[in-house]
Amino acid sequence: MRKKERSMRKILCASLLTAGLFTATSCDNYLDVNTNPNGPDQVVAPQFYLPAIQSELALGIQFDARYIGKYVQNWNQNSANDVWDQHGFVASSDASGQLWRAIYYSMGANLTDMISKAEQDKKWDFAGVGYVMRAFGWQTLTDYHGEVIVSQAFEPGRTSFDYDTQDKIYEEVRRLTLLAIQNLEKTDGAVATSQLKQGDLIYGGDRAKWIKFSYGLLAINEHHLSNKSSYNPDKVIEYVDKSLASNADDASVRFEGAVSNDTNFYGPRRGNMNTYRQSKFIVGLLDGTNSALRDADLIGLDPKFAGQHLKDPRLPVMLAPAADGEYRGVTPGVGVTEYVEAQRPRNLWNTPTDVVAATTPNKYLFGNNERFPIMTYSQLQFIKAEAAFLKGDKALALDAYTKGVKAHLDFVQKYAVNDAATPEDEAAVYAQRRKLYEASEDLIPLNAADLTLPKIMLQKYIAQWGWGFLETWSDLRRYHYNNEVFTGFELPNPLYGLNQGKPAYRFRPRYNSEYMWNVSALEKIGGLNPDYHTYEMWFSKK
């Protein structure tokens, strides 16, 4: 898991292919750099590591989104009694363990070597990106699993590894991120010729954007502690103000989409999402039926659905209708069978059947060559809005909330032209709905006193739908699945039997890593107990 020998050839080959750096040299010949057949004798240039490291992180999140996406009800299974729909798990399986593999194995020692080589060559920008990628990986992994292995993770010769507590991991994320900023701000050494642009699939070598990304990570790290007495909303606001300044700063990973190995995991070419259906919860947030995002003055104003509440302009772009043209979602654990066939929601690509052609046109984030977001401006504005609201500064909260809503409306609008046979009409309807939506004082208040916490959290949920699963789950757990904050959100009924009536708060560690080889360490943290996945996280506790 944590040894670089087994993955180095594959990682570097994938990096070179992804970055488009090959000429006529084969991968095997290019990488014949070792005299030791069991491991590399030398560390290669940083730009050869970075593309695979970035894509593996994105793919790790996307792989496991098939499960966490059900926990947070972005989507659910089209059939009944799915254990993940019920906040359960599949025993003796690596399902939901891809992120673990990405952080420890695919990134793992390769990322360590990249940072070491960058520091040796005084390529401070590569070192900075390496440190913040490692920090982002730890933040992601601990928010997903709780206690994970950090301090001993890459120690050579170890056969067992102790778990670190979440508070220590959060401290390590802060330390690494601040170290990343220090390196990214350096302009001496070999920064001018470091070739970061060649290897960076996220920002194309833009150091200024990586610094903003780092401050965004600090904001997320700090804001997750909102239930702690030490929580400092002013620090969160400060970090957000230093982070992404507009949608142009959004962080997303590039995929080419021409072949399966370099295709977005959500793309029809990969065929990974055919049996998933949008949830009833997300449909309610976008169709005007959720009471927190409903304006009685908008009833009867929709240009496409006569007599109905104005639909959120994002609805037809993000979601898929049923055969009868109406938008519906599935209930966790129930599937599509609660509807007659003509009323059943279609899959995420909006195709009539689940046998989906590889060349099916892109829809929202579910395209072969669509970029996958990992941090966005709108997400951070909603974090700022919540921090200001909790502080009691509702004027600042409303300003950030308004910027967040409008930024996400901009984010989605660029996909409108890809979603219909008559794209001009699709774009025109989007603009028409958006004008009415933004004019609603219920949806976007003019008076700060009218802003509510549910509005902030539900608009953030919409903005993160389809990509920000871990941040959405962190929000749900911080509020302990409170459906007065997340209006309309209902836990599955029944919950998985081993849960003992409790919702999930973490995913169990990767089976073939920990439950096969690290049992004694697992036992110390309760990881062998059948309800371990319901143990509350440190960050969400009072």
Kindly summarize this structure in a few lines.
By secondary structure, the protein is an all-alpha fold. It contains 18 helices and four strands. It is globular.
Describe this structure in words.
This protein is mainly α and 542 residues long. The chain has a domain at 274-370 and 378-478. It contains 18 helices and four strands. It has helices at residues 5-19, 27-30, 50-71, 98-120, 124-145, 166-184, 196-199, 207-223, 233-241, 280-286, 315-318, 377-391, 394-413, 423-439, 453-464, 469-478, 511-517, 519-524; strands spanning 75-77, 251-253, 276-278, 372-375. The protein is globular and about 65 Å long. The model is unreliable at 1-40 (pLDDT under 50).
Q: Give, in spatial order, the strands making up the sheet with the most strands.
A: 1-3
Compute the gyration radius: what is it? 23 Å
Question: How far apart lie the N and C ends?
Answer: 34 Å
Counting DSSP E segments of at least 2 residues, the number of strands comes to: 4
Q: Please write the string of helix (H) and strand (E) elements.
A: HHHEHHHHHHEEHHEHHHHHHH
Mean pLDDT: 92
